[in-house]
Design brief:
The chain is an alpha/beta fold and about 350 residues long. About 25% of the residues lie in helices and about 20% in strands. β1, α1 and β2 form a beta-alpha-beta unit. α2 packs across α3 and α3 packs parallel to α8. The protein starts with 14 loop residues before the first strand and ends with a helix. The N terminus is likely disordered. It comes from Laedolimicola intestinihominis. It catalyses: L-asparagine + H2O = L-aspartate + NH4(+).
């Protein structure tokens, strides 16, 4: 680890490895006008992406590989586990100083958060993508990739956990969310803001995450071949117990309910869950996209046996519950994990 900081290493460019997974950043069409409805087939490979950013060789020694080539909406748990294992393998190489992952934006925040909790290294891991395909006018992919590489090569990026770099922003994977279906600045941290920014090749940090991540995390997926099954249910006015009943009877390990306001679960749903003799774990998150889910008078956690999501969105609460269930099946311990991370 110290190799990067030794005096003689400052005479060398940092070695940044790129792992490409596909996504819009790698999409290309015949028409530069086509910015929607493009194909996820025949995506650009990692080396082709690098060739689109001439001059980056002045900032880093780059190696690259393709691990997948798919739309991020097709990512599943097998892909997540394979990617996490490969990231840990790459970062264990003492010649590698940082890592960049290119990824589709549909599920980028989920992959980023999963890696935030499972990557066992203090080296920089930066995930980026694009909202426009590579063939589009003013495609944002090359600029995002340049910024991500410069960030991964920065001394200041160490110990920051997995980050997302989009539209010049540096965002913690713990808090980042996609907030628009089409805007270039779609990725934001609604509650806590950005860690920093990249302007030109200048990487500036102003804040750092304090919750456990990386080597501080208790989750280890190196030997896992599958994850516990956790489903998400959205609530609404006049919500019945039907979906919850179907999910419970399917034999899932856990459920995240995107509740109302501060995680309130509608009456028929919560009474059905309370009456169950054998319950899958149930996390109360909120369908509101920011804010904290605290104790709620409509669904007291001690009475109903539920778990507060804290400030995690439903999709991130799902991932955290999956990982929590790999280390414990104790309700109080899982509640503690949601408070800890």
């Amino acid at each position: 680890m110290l190799r990067y900081f030794e005096k003689e290493h400052f005479m060398k460019l940092p070695h940044i490895h790129i792992i490409a997974t596909g996504g819009t950043i790698a999409a290309h069409e015949k028409s530069a006008m086509q910015t929607t409805g493009y194909s996820a087939n025949d995506l650009l490979l990692a080396n082709e992406l690098i060739r689109s950013i001439k001059g980056i060789e002045a900032h880093a020694e780059i190696t690259a590989e393709n691990i997948f080539s798919l739309a991020s909406s097709a990512m599943d748990e097998a892909h997540l586990l394979q990617l996490a294992r490969r990231v840990n393998e790459v970062l264990a190489d003492p010649t590698v100083d940082g890592l960049v992952i290119t990824h589709g934006t549909d599920t980028l925040e989920e992959t980023a958060f999963f890696l935030y909790l499972t990557v066992k290294s203090s080296k920089p891991v930066v995930i980026t993508g694009s909202m426009l395909p590579a063939s589009a006018h003013s495609a944002d992919g090359p600029g995002n990739l340049i910024n991500a590489i410069c960030t991964a090569a920065s001394r200041e990026a160490w110990e920051k956990g997995v980050m997302v770099c989009m539209c010049n922003r540096l965002l913690s994977a713990r808090d980042v969310a996609k907030t628009s279906t089409y805007r270039l600045d779609t990725f934001k941290c609604l509650e806590y803001g950005t860690l920093g920014h990249v302007i030109g090749a200048d990487v500036r940090f102003y804040y750092a995450p304090v919750r456990p991540h990386g080597s501080q995390s208790q989750f280890d997926v190196q030997a896992l071949t599958e994850l516990p099954r956790v489903e998400i249910i959205m609530t609404h006015e006049n919500c019945s117990e039907l979906l919850l009943k179907n999910v419970v009877e399917s034999g899932c390990d856990g459920i995240v309910v995107a509740g109302m306001g501060s995680g309130a679960i509608p009456p028929r749903m919560r009474e059905y869950y309370k009456a169950l003799e054998k319950k899958p774990f149930l996390v109360r998150a909120s369908r509101v996209y920011s804010g904290y889910v605290a104790a709620h008078s409509a669904t007291p956690d001690q009475e109903y046996g539920t778990i507060c999501a804290g400030d995690f969105t439903p999709i991130k609460a799902r991932l955290l519950l999956q990982l929590a269930l790999t280390v414990t099946s104790d309700l109080d311990e899982i509640r503690g994990i949601f408070q800890k991370y």
